[in-house]
Design goal:
Length: 81
């Protein structure tokens, strides 16, 4: 099964996350099939927090990829904005 989820990057006190497509069995920071964007929870501007290629997200969901709970919540906020 393929999942759309977060992979942690950045420094210890300044985490950043990459949104990627992973095989379900891959560890959190393992090799991604494809990276779709990024998430920075400390960004001042709400529009800068989540940067995702929505066309590719829709493509992968169409292929059967399931977003994690966190990604699903973030994508809902992105679509509503």
């Amino acid at each position: 099964m393929v999942r759309i989820r977060l992979a942690k990057t950045g420094k210890r006190n300044d985490p950043k996350w990459r949104v990627g497509v992973f095989d379900k069995r891959t560890r959190r920071d393992g090799k991604a099939i494809e990276y779709l964007g990024s998430y920075n929870q400390h960004a001042k501007d709400p529009g800068e927090k989540l940067k995702v290629d929505m066309e590719r997200v829709e493509y992968w969901i169409g292929k059967g990829a399931r977003p994690s709970e966190t990604i699903a919540r973030l994508l809902e906020l992105k679509v509503d904005a």
